[in-house]
Specification:
Chains B, D: Pfam families: NifU_N. The complex is a heterotetramer, with two copies of chain A (429 residues) and two copies of chain B (150 residues). With 429 residues, chain A is α/β, with parallel strands linked by helices. Chain A has 15 helices and 17 strands. The chains are: A alpha/beta (429), B alpha+beta (150). Chains in contact: A-B, A-C, A-D, B-C, C-D. Bound molecules: pyridoxal-5'-phosphate (PLP) (2 copies).
């Protein structure tokens, strides 16, 4: 298959062959894994890279001086450079975390610590308190909502939430009204993990810049699926997880503008992030090390670098295009079935490849069970976005989230099954 | 069409119970009660333990909630099973039901004491659904604890 | 080799064959890896367990309802049960973290959050402020010192430090004097990663209990090397890392008494740790889930469980005995070389298998380089324990930390090299 | 005995320079200065840039610190190299030395401008030690920045 041609079913099948987990039977059917929005499968190249590290270079990083330790450090830092290149950041702007959730919490606690007077003079710019406002949106994953609720509770600041419209797109008029001069931070997701909405980053950044607020981007559902350049998006911080982009579990990334990372007080403290420690006090290294206390996820960072090599070889633009096709096919197929309501906007230009839907009269758990019986793995529930589900009037939804290794045949199998599910549960109309 | 396994999960008695929801509707007056929630899907149930005047027999369970067919059917079948039972016998039945649910498809030696609720045996093959089936039963345990605490 | 016989060199060589990384040449010599105190090597069984998970069960845990997700959840929770059994805890007393450093920070931030009024009524017992005292020791790794310095800075509490004596054992008279009624928390390491000192846990716990203080045990250097039962030790919290005990990087454990974990406010917030979330507020699940926000280190937890199986098969008592032998041999050999000073106590009963030393007139980096030239991997530096090094009068030391896969021949090779190193650098006496 | 590689790392000129420590001892009067620390081992150096009255030529570097033989030798050899040099030439020499250190054993085309400090080439084969060799040179950069800021 050529890098220049779009990904078709034949190409997808070739890619799929690189993923051992995709090659299995579930309940007597070949697995159709359509839950990549929760976590992606891993190609052999990633598993090999991790294993190769453990078998040949495993040692403490940034601590040892012996040969293995030096090699391990080099590979670990090469992985950081790889991630930085992938998102258009400088090397020292990439902080390893255990996942996107920790990355978002890191920012919230860093601000909390600055607000408690820690971090010295340079940290003052982050301090917030009563009268200050944090803004997020109604469409967020809990990981980009609760940390800000808690930050507000710790500091006395107020949390404002930009509402979404009936089609789950942001109410931009409300956004303009809510982002006032008291706003110190605006956090929003690039792409929704439920409604598939791709948020208007440039407009939101402009609103934040106009009032001098920091911008935090939840890039969990964009970085794995489309080309993302943090510099072009002009955000201050961005967070994403390795496991959703072919990488291992247990590794995530915080991007932060260098100047900000070097001013933000540390979050986790311990070994390898200090210059001098006395019994009274510790002096901290510059970023990114100041945020990387303790032994890091070394093998996982190296695995993530291999995942990026794989994604780069496939091409993010091709991935994005393919997923848009699969998503549109899914959307059309599902929307045509009586009693099924697809969440999110109908305009394909506003959507990622994800499709979440409600089957009238059949609980999402039962829908999921019916699909699982055919070897189709999709996710049911609130997908860690309770407020959004509440707003859209459903407790739980059924979510189909494809990746570039999925085929149209798999999408069609879902559509077929969805066409039968209401009858199976005794509903007819 | 579903597989035979799926058919044994969604038996007719279960699908019907999930629609009939015996015991649905909370009583206005206070009774020992408990609320349970399945955090994955947001399903929930509030259940009241209504006893006779002596407090020694179940008159009827009363509950409200929303959830998948398994959780609704389970609440309905639990209501059927417990009506008129001595309260003292409840822990044993709940224990037996839990054992059945954790049996991973193996069942229990004697499921007679569970009445129609034994039809939920198929759930035990699907670990992710055990929580759904247990929801009402856990709520009943909670209500009994509240009643004991008084 | 029989489980009942002590580990001898033949047995150690058989174990070593299970560790691919040990079977390589470094600078023309067979690698002698004596840096397990920093991070251990991994047996094939652990690498296979992780890979098997990725190839067959990889899916989101505690979120999905499809077959793979259910299997992944089951394996993940089985791993937790394995860890719990290994340390004598209940299943819900084991919280996954990215490492010991995060585990210790979790406690510190939980207390911080309680002190800021979060966590409701039940969290009040953790609240501290001006007038309250936290106690740690001079012998700590930075991971068990800086989080408490920061907690003190955030809350206004005071940090007291139990000094060590010249042989690096704790000054227990000072401990008794410092642990007064104002003390709310006592944090200390079970085994020092530098001086090899095994601290008197029972005595320290008794001092803490007498004043109602919580006890936090840094078990990083004990759990991998000796049988540890948290219930018998009667500590409130304990922290350790998977990578030091044959497990993957990126996974650690916080043990906490159930009653305490369920009262402590959450630390990281996000998905999978809540019951109900509104735009204003989140309700949290009981422990351990309330501390496990976001996608967890699933493959790593499963790898750690495989590591525990391996350790159990070898036997912790045998490991402890073997390391004591290797440590004693190293101690004797090094102490007999003119110009070498071994840190820590001379009484073998007070020591783990670790030996840190100072070569008079030769900087530790140069010593390390000399050993590395022979394929001997040891660690040089302050080992994340600057205050202890300062107290012992050295900036950096050379640390030999064996595991059960090391042989006496490797120890002897270190002793030989140490005997030459001063001459090589032009020192004679 | 060490390997030939080790011998090329610890050449006689390096071991001697590490003991002689040319330039050791800070001046009491103020000069542009900088402090550098290697966090792994706690090694550190404080270095003063002492210029002639015009400020255009290095009179001599003055420094204090402690560290491994590589870091001490490097400070000593840097002191030898820079004595009398035009300040304007320092950035190029430092840049060349950094290039040499990052060459992973490959060396640079022309290391003549580094004088005896070129003997540190062997360090470039040991990534973990590059920081040691760079310590004094980074401190000199820092001191120059301080001097420029005035
Ligand atoms: C005694 C002790 N405490 C804490 C730690 C920190 O562990 P980690 O770096 O795995 O978080 C270590 C190891 O580096 C240690 O030896
Ligand atoms: C939009 C979004 N944000 C945040 C997260 C949290 O990521 P993680 O669970 O990997 O920390 C997810 C995935 O679950 C997500 O889809």
């Amino acid at each position: 298959m050529t890098q220049n041609l779009p990904i078709d079913d034949a190409a997808a099948a070739v890619y799929a062959a690189d993923f051992p987990a995709l090659d299995q039977e579930v309940n007597g059917h070949r697995l159709a894994y359509l839950d990549s929005g929760a976590t992606s499968q891993k190609p052999t190249a990633v598993l090999d890279a991790e294993r190769d590290f453990y078998e040949h270079h495993n040692a403490a990083v940034h601590r040892g001086a012996h040969t293995l330790a030096a090699l391990a450090t080099e590979r670990f830092e090469d992985a950081r450079a790889k991630v930085a290149g992938f998102i258009g950041a400088d090397i020292d702007e990439v902080v390893w975390t255990s996942g996107a959730t920790e990355a978002l919490n890191l920012i919230a606690y860093g601000i909390s610590n600055a607000s408690a007077g820690l971090g010295g003079e340079s940290a003052r710019r982050f301090a917030i308190g009563a009268g200050d406002v944090i803004v997020t949106t109604e469409g967020e994953h809990h990981a980009n909502l609760i940390p800000w609720q808690e930050l507000a509770a710790r500091t006395g600041a107020t949390l404002r939430v930009i509402p979404v419209l009936d089609d789950a797109t942001l109410d931009m008029d409300a956004a303009a009204a809510l982002i006032t001069s008291e706003v110190k931070l605006l956090a929003f997701t690039h792409v929704s993990n439920v409604s598939a909405v791709i948020n208007p980053v440039a407009e939101l950044v402009a609103l934040a810049r106009a009032v001098g607020a920091l911008v935090v981007l939840d890039a969990c559902q964009s970085v794995p699926h489309m080309g993302v350049n943090v510099r072009e998006l002009d955000v201050d911080f961005a967070a994403f997880s390795g496991h959703k982009m072919l990488g291992p579990t247990g590794i995530g990334v915080l991007y932060g503008r260098s100047e900000l990372l070097n001013a933000l007080p540390p979050f986790l403290t311990g070994g390898s992030m200090i210059t001098t420690v006395t019994l009274e006090k510790a002096e901290y290294l510059p970023a990114p090390q100041r945020f990387e206390a303790g032994t890091q996820q070394v093998a996982q960072a190296i695995g993530l670098a291999a995942a990026i090599d794989y994604l780069d070889a496939v091409g993010l633009d091709r991935i994005h295009e393919r997923e848009a096709d699969l998503g549109a096919r899914m959307y059309r197929g599902a929307a045509a079935i009586p009693g099924i309501r697809v969440l999110g906007p109908s305009d394909a230009a506003l959507r990622s490849g994800v499709v979440a839907l409600d089957v009238e009269g059949v609980h999402a758990h039962d829908v999921g069970q019916y699909l699982d019986d055919r070897g189709i793995a999709i996710r049911v529930g609130h997908h860690c976005a309770q407020p959004l589900h509440r707003r859209l009037g459903v407790t739980a939804s059924t979510r189909i989230s494809p990746y570039f290794y999925n085929t149209t045949a798999e999408i069609d199998a879902v559509i077929d099954a969805l066409g039968e599910v209401r009858a199976y549960f005794g509903l007819t109309d | 069409m579903g597989s035979p396994e799926l058919a044994s999960l969604y038996q007719q008695v279960i699908l019907e119970a999930s629609k009939q929801k015996h015991g649905f509707g909370l009583r206005p007056e206070p009774h020992p009660s408990n609320h349970q929630l399945n955090p994955t899907c947001g399903d929930e149930i509030t259940l009241q333990l209504v006893t006779d005047s002596s407090g020694e027999h179940v008159e009827k369970l009363a509950w409200e909630g929303q959830g998948c067919s398994i959780s609704m059917a389970s609440a309905s079948l639990l209501t059927d099973l417990t009506a008129g039972l001595p309260v003292a016998e409840l822990p044993e039945r709940i224990g037996l039901f839990r054992e059945l649910m954790q049996s991973k498809g193996a069942g229990v030696e004697d499921d007679e004491p569970l009445g129609d609720a034994a039809a939920l045996e198929g759930v035990s093959r699907y670990i992710a659904r055990v929580k759904c089936a247990m929801l009402a039963w856990t709520a009943l345990e909670g209500a009994m604890m509240e009643s004991a605490a008084k």
